[in-house]
């Protein structure tokens, strides 16, 4: 039943500066992250004080270290923290205000600052940019500004249309003939094809 599905976590702002540094993004719970070109990540809590630094091994396992904006190893992270602040400022000043798409931050605060979700990788096609999050969600941002989010281990489908309206279905309902218009159905088909081709690269987050 889609009515019992919890608030989604997804990327509601992003800026690609991967030609130099990496990709910055904001999650719907208010946290800000940067996926750097060296495959490391900084994720800043919505309290704008605590952050995690996440590195990835060759076996696709992740190591997380937690710091605060005031206390971190400056010799290692000075530049990355500076870039995190830069991306944050840029997205606040220049990108669409996404409050209407966002989770209730009070719900996020209940989980504290431990084990914050973050983007583990992404790639582009001519039709969409695809993000994968550490909570196993996969998000498709299409060139027409629609978004498709698969979460709860693929059991929940969320779609944000070009009018920024939210639609949520269970996977079984989403696949029912006639439920969605042809354009949305084509996006589901595209997502399925991408996930099948990407399956070998999608090792579980540990």
Automatic annotation (TrEMBL):
One of its GO terms (cellular component) is spindle pole. Keywords: ATP-binding, Kinase, Nucleotide-binding, Repeat, Serine/threonine-protein kinase, Transferase. Gene3D superfamilies: POLO box domain. It comes from the Eukaryota. One of its GO terms (molecular function) is ATP binding. Residues 10-93, 118-200 form the POLO box domain. InterPro entries: POLO_box_1 (IPR033701), POLO_box_2 (IPR033695), POLO_box_dom (IPR000959), POLO_box_dom_sf (IPR036947). This is POLO box domain-containing protein. It comes from Pneumocystis jirovecii.
